[in-house]
Amino acid sequence: MMKFSLDNSNVPVNNLQDTARTLIPYLNRLQQVMEVKNYETDESSLNLPFDENLLAEVISLKERKVNSNLKYVIDVGIGGSNLGTKAIYDATWGAFDALQPARSPKIIFCDTTDPEFIYFLNRFLDNNISTPEEIIINGISKSGTTTETVFNLEMIIKTLFKKSSEYINRLVITTDENSKMWERAHNLNIDMLSIPKIVGGRYSVFSAVGLFPLACGGVDIRTLLDGARSICKQLLQSDVLQISPLMSSVVLYLQNKQGKNIHDSFFFHPELESVGKWYRQLTGESLGKEKDLDGKEVHAGITPTISVGSTDLHSVAQLYLGGPTDKITTFIYSRKPRFDLTLTNFDLEGKNLDKEKIFIELIPSLEGKKTSEIMNAIFEGTKNTYQNHKLPFMEISLEDLSTQSLGEFLQFKMVEMMFLGKLLNINTFDQPNVEDYKIETKKILEQNIAFIE
Amino acid sequence: MMKFSLDNSNVPVNNLQDTARTLIPYLNRLQQVMEVKNYETDESSLNLPFDENLLAEVISLKERKVNSNLKYVIDVGIGGSNLGTKAIYDATWGAFDALQPARSPKIIFCDTTDPEFIYFLNRFLDNNISTPEEIIINGISKSGTTTETVFNLEMIIKTLFKKSSEYINRLVITTDENSKMWERAHNLNIDMLSIPKIVGGRYSVFSAVGLFPLACGGVDIRTLLDGARSICKQLLQSDVLQISPLMSSVVLYLQNKQGKNIHDSFFFHPELESVGKWYRQLTGESLGKEKDLDGKEVHAGITPTISVGSTDLHSVAQLYLGGPTDKITTFIYSRKPRFDLTLTNFDLEGKNLDKEKIFIELIPSLEGKKTSEIMNAIFEGTKNTYQNHKLPFMEISLEDLSTQSLGEFLQFKMVEMMFLGKLLNINTFDQPNVEDYKIETKKILEQNIAFIE
Fold this sequence. Notes:
Two copies of one chain form a homodimer. The first copy, chain A, is α/β, with parallel strands linked by helices. Chain A is built from 15 helices and twelve strands. In chain A, strands 1-12-11-7-10 form a five-stranded mixed sheet, covered by helices on one side.
């Protein structure tokens, strides 16, 4: 189980406790949502990790589609349709895919309509896929009319259809029931998975949106859901001070009121960067609101930034330590990597090791150290420095980097966000301004406006 | 040549002009630096793109090391030692490496001591490298004693030494002349390249730090430098209002004074994300300062964020449009991708195309569109929406995504930063607080403190 600490949040304990207690009625509401177990309220995503029907449906379709020749799962979706999947896949395998050319299946994510990426992706499929068994294409669009997803999906299908029309059997569509895409897929006899209407993209990682491609990509979705459930179960207790995602929201809220308009999630594992990007959407869309629930213009919101240790210590540490005091930080770290090497005694294949030293004499204290020991030292050194500079931070210590721990973390953050929206008195579940640019884009696409430089 | 627009910066023209004119003395100083052509002043990085000796040295070493069997260049460096290289490589090839398995040579970046990444990297080298010719290892550390770089370099060397001690001939060290690493490499007869002492990491992309690995990785460094020079040459004119990086700094400065503490660089090309990460260091380390040049405690700094279109419209657009008005944005886009496909008529290999439509009927206006036309529409739609919301932005239109254009962009940003530091009255070239966490880390490493959960 993860550990959460707010010892360095620099908020007086009385404030923390008083604010936390204002959340008791909302906690009771979440408890009710979990008791009723349906998908009819904004917070219903809390029920996804417990949904046995959903799990059975996903596993059953996965078993029909996955075979020993499967090489690639193409995840075609954008925003809430792919960020959670990518978060978990990258943390588990994706960050090392370039270094494991022979491992399969791999998930390839296709989100935006970048001309260069789309060109290389289609050329890659054309050259590297020889039978339908080698590929699964999962098109994911909650609305069913996402411009990028419809365009990219059509492009990929056409590339594969040049080989054979049988590739249509390798396509799975995940969308809201009765969306236009749903109807079209139904008419074409394409396999489908649905998303509960009330669950928005950014809360949908534990629905079919995330579970199906992850299962196909070899991620253990059962332990992922175990992790998520362990956080949901925290909500069943009555002492708000013991509910860590709730306390995290209280710190973020109080620090935001004190002028911290940036929340830096500082991951000391590069493979968790995509987890940060998932959280960026969760924060950005949930909290960035023109008006509060009383209709007052508030322009609420906290800007999420992602830092990666130790890389970004060599990039933005100077800003964080010396610059404006406009940030609240959450450090995320696990002391238990799945793999670890020792410098002077590592031995990948049982061979005798060369005892020669090349550069290690430049920093003698590195000798005999494990990679994790170096990272531990940098992590502790960084926290000490934040303390010395009186910079506020929270800390999440993941038990390890397993799928279970990832499930815990993502669920922690979704629950944190629900409480934080409540404290800010805004609608945590809508995204009214996203339509603004979509309307402008649609106008341009339909009018066939040409742009000349 | 790139185009720069501040038409939507929402700053009164008088303010812009008055502030720009205060930079005339500093512009004159930059002109002097470029006239003297040495490496003795803080701004000397301006002379790198014109340095024929440097170019000749890099090309000569590259020609000795690169051969037709070369598969991988391992770039071992962190922060200023690799961010510029990665920016240009990823924009040119790296973002598509997973989709071009057969293309070589590829650059693999090894920066932090992530236990999992280091494990997979060493296993990969152990399994996939069979002769010294297939690899070049470039270890880069300005100080020569960067913890992560020394550790990772030693680890990689040992892995390769298990195969043969001849791999030492495939190692190139880039460091300050007479650093401890320089002396050690000299004693071991390892090939070396130096960095001018005065040029800090974040301004070093056009030194051997960036040029050597990029040249080995197949990037055309001559046109890269051409692009950089075209920006430097802008500095030779006397009308400050015509110098675009100077005007960009003026907008950032004036908007920062009005409370915009975040500068979002919004790239509408995912392959430029690493360019954004390079700029993040440039801004973070250059501007994030506790004290100004008069010793006054100011906590100066602008927090750089990177957004990627259209991906992040589905992530943080709601925050940007509806949330706090704490951001100034720079949009970066080119209308000329190197590759482009048309939806209903794309034909990768001269085959007749399947005319079947699958999902395109869901959005009929997509039919017959090029990928770039979709992106153009989203880009223009986004800008219109920013205008409607009165959100301030600047725009950089890259001529194309060539190496030349990348050289222009990076040099533009380094010059912008010099002017911006001047306006903020801070030392743009030091990074005093970075030492803080390094000292703490060193204490822990040397004391062999064990951490027990």
